[in-house]
Amino acid sequence: MEILGTIIVGFIVGVIAKLIHPGRENMGFIVTTLLGIAGSFLAGYVGQALGWYHAGQGAGFIGSIIGAFVLLLIYGFVKGKAAS
């Protein structure tokens, strides 16, 4: 059940990151979910390593959204470079 919970939270985080990102990214359900999961792991690792918060705190969810947003910006930059 923990993996299913991670996937659901990852999807929610990915959707929120896409909503606050300017412009339009043509990504499907799976890529959005993977973006959210990766953002969660990135923010969780960095936030806990720096001592900003501990596992299970509300700040971790906000950090996950920020992490997914950063990954979305990087994705857009790389995708834009590849199209040129």
Question: If you had to describe this structure to a student in words, what would you say it looks like?
Answer:
There is one protein chain. Helices cover 79% and strands 0% of the residues. It is mainly α. The protein has one domain. Helix 1 crosses helix 3. It starts with a helix and ends with a helix. The model has no long low-confidence stretch (mean pLDDT 78).
Helix content: over 70%
Global shape = globular
Question: Major sheet: size, sense and barrel closure?
Answer: none
**Low-pLDDT sequence parts:** none
Query: What is the first-to-last residue Cα distance?
Result: 43 Å
Number of strands: 0
Write the layout of secondary structure elements.
Elements (H helix, E strand, L loop, with lengths): L1 H19 L8 H21 L8 H26 L1
